[in-house]
């Protein structure tokens, strides 16, 4: 923990970089400011708030937060010639020194430090009160988002709610899972009361009241877990209904429109991490393209491939499938058609994840498409699942919600299902709607289906050694070494 705390201590004096919100924001670095002279003006408050989004952009631009939800589930397969820690996640040989595990933890606590700075320091600044409260609301939303990620990956974690300014008293023990959820709930309840309904201009992409409500609905869904009688089902349904009733959000008519550059911050987005093509981009374009494919800058990296299990789960009529995957391409030099496969072991011939690829990019690792944290189709499926669970089976409203998502995908409406059949149908719909968007492992873990799903996906010699304790990742070893108050998760 001490090593992370050192990072946190100095995170606020690092350059902010470009925002995860709007490409139009003109940002200045914090590096030239000292603690004694900073956090004095409204401009300081705004810059400190933007710094939180800058960290979020850094966290999602590559694959650290996406990889466990893909290869540790049943949606993706890492190439065996790639990163050994990625392969270990896939085969369930994950150990506390795994770099992905360590990066998730350290990135989250760096982001939490930035949020804590805003929560503590901005209230003392003399400025417009509504704007001030909005900044603190954004900080609470982003802190809740980080703790939500941590509790799903690790279970109970240390709750750090104050700015870390020294290495005194940094040996913080793990809180319980419920204590973490209660902090998340408190932060989001506060945020939804002070955040605006929407932004305009260069501020589009910042956290809104709808984003806070939507995230809280998802938090309640996960908090309910496998408990069929949990009171959180009703709370999740009610909060999702609040988002629906806002009238702010809607589905794009075509699934492909969700991911178009021109639609960033559009009607389906509650919250997304934004990038700027060729300037402050992400690695989804180069990283996900077939290995060496000359259709993206520098050729594709081929980080991992699409599993046959996922690929074959899409019904023939599903309009999402051709948007989501690349199944062939034309070599721009030879003009030859290159078919791709879910069975061929050659990384250059693998079906690839494609919906976040930015073909306007001319610089490797600088795609501009957003990474969605929460969109309206998610709210609809949260509402459908939670309402059915709270009502001991699906009613007309639950069917309407899931069928809105299915209708856009070109699929027939559902009807006449039992409670369990409906729950299974929602889980499948979530897999097809959000694949490669950082949801699958979380969904399988919270519903108790992770072990069976992983054991069923054994292509390319996976032979996973998964056990019940693998519904959580290990606490990073470097944190345990630095903080004796931390206890390791069972089984590691």
Task: Provide an overview of this structure.
Helix content is 44%, strand content 5%. The chain is mainly alpha-helical and 492 residues long. Among the domains are: 2-207 and 472-482, Serine Threonine Protein Phosphatase 5, Tetratricopeptide repeat; 284-369, no CATH class. The strands form four sheets. A two-stranded antiparallel sheet has the order 1-3. Strands 2-8 form a two-stranded antiparallel ribbon. The longest helix is centred in the N-terminal third of the chain and has 26 residues, at 129-154. The two termini are 18 Å apart. 49% of the residues are buried.
Write the layout of secondary structure elements.
Elements: H1 2-11, H2 42-60, H3 67-71, E1 76-78, H4 84-91, H5 99-121, H6 129-154, H7 177-194, H8 209-224, H9 232-246, E2 269-273, H10 284-288, E3 304-306, H11 308-311, H12 320-324, E4 325-326, E5 328-330, E6 337-339, E7 352-353, E8 371-375, H13 376-390, H14 396-408, H15 419-434, H16 440-446, H17 450-456, H18 477-482
Antiparallel strand pairs: 1-3, 2-8, 4-7, 5-6
Tags for this model:
single chain, 492 residues, mainly alpha, Serine Threonine Protein Phosphatase 5, Tetratricopeptide repeat, two-stranded antiparallel ribbon, 18 helices, disordered N terminus
Main β-sheet, spatial strand arrangement: 1-3
Shape category: globular
β-sheet strand percentage? 5-15%
**What radius of gyration results from the CA coordinates?**
22 Å
CATH architectural grouping of the domain at 2-207 and 472-482 = Alpha Horseshoe
Tell me the major beta sheet: 2 strands, antiparallel
The total count of helices amounts to 18
Q: Low-confidence stretches at least 5 residues in length (pLDDT < 50)?
A: 1-34
Number of strands: 8
CATH class value of the domain at 2-207 and 472-482: Mainly Alpha
Mean pLDDT across every amino acid position = 91
**Straight-line distance between termini:** 18 Å
Element order, helices and strands?
Answer: HHHEHHHHHHEHEHHEEEEEHHHHHH
Category by helix and strand content: mainly alpha
Instruction: Kindly report the CATH topology of the domain at 2-207 and 472-482.
Output: Serine Threonine Protein Phosphatase 5, Tetratricopeptide repeat
What's the helical proportion of residues? 40-55%
């Amino acid at each position: 923990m001490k090593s992370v705390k050192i990072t946190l201590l100095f995170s606020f004096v690092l350059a902010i970089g470009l925002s995860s919100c709007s490409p139009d924001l003109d940002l200045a670095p914090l590096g030239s400011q000292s603690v004694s002279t900073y956090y004095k003006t409204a401009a300081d408050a705004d810059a400190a708030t933007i710094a939180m989004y800058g960290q979020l952009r850094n966290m999602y631009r590559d694959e650290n937060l996406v990889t466990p939800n893909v290869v540790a589930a049943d949606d993706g397969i890492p190439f065996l010639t790639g990163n050994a820690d990625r392969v270990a996640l896939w085969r369930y040989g994950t150990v506390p020194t795994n770099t992905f595990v360590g990066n998730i933890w350290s990135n989250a606590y760096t982001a939490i430090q930035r949020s804590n700075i805003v929560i503590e320091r901005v209230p003392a600044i003399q400025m417009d009160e509504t704007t001030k409260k909005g900044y603190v609301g954004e900080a609470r939303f982003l802190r809740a988002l980080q703790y939500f990620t941590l509790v799903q990956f690790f279970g109970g974690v240390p709750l750090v709610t104050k700015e870390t300014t020294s290495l005194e008293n940094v040996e913080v023990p793990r809180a319980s899972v419920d204590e973490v959820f209660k902090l998340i709930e408190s932060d989001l309840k506060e945020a939804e009361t002070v955040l605006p309904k929407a932004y305009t201009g260069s501020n589009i992409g910042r956290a809104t009241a709808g984003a806070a409500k939507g995230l809280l609905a998802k938090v309640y869904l996960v908090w309910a877990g496998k408990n069929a009688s949990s009171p959180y089902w009703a709370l999740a349904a009610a909060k999702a209904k609040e988002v629906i009733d806002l009238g702010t959000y809607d589905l794009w008519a075509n699934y492909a429109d969700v991911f178009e550059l021109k639609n960033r911050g559009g009607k389906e987005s509650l919250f997304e991490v934004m990038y700027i093509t060729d300037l402050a981009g992400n690695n989804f374009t180069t990283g996900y393209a077939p290995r060496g494919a000359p259709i993206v800058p520098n050729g594709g990296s081929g980080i991992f491939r699409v599993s046959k299990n996922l690929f074959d789960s899409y019904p023939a009529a599903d309009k999402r499938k051709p948007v989501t995957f690349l199944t062939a391409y034309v070599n721009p030099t030879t003009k030859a058609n290159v078919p791709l496969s879910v069975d061929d072991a050659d990384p250059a011939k693998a079906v690839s994840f494609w919906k976040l690829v930015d073909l306007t990019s001319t610089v490797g690792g600088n795609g501009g498409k957003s990474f969605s944290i929460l969109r309206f189709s998610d709210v609809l499926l949260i509402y459908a699942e939670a309402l059915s669970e709270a009502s001991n089976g699906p009613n007309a409203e639950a069917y309407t919600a899931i069928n809105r998502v299915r209708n856009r995908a070109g699929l027939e409406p559902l009807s006449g299902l039992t409670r369990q059949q409906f729950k299974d149908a929602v889980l499948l719909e979530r897999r097809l709607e959000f694949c490669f968007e950082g949801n699958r492992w979380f969904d399988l873990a919270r519903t108790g289906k992770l072990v069976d799903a992983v054991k069923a996906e054994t292509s390319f010699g996976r032979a996973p050694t998964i056990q019940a304790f693998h519904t959580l990742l290990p606490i990073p070893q470097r944190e345990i070494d630095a903080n004796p108050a931390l206890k390791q998760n069972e089984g590691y």
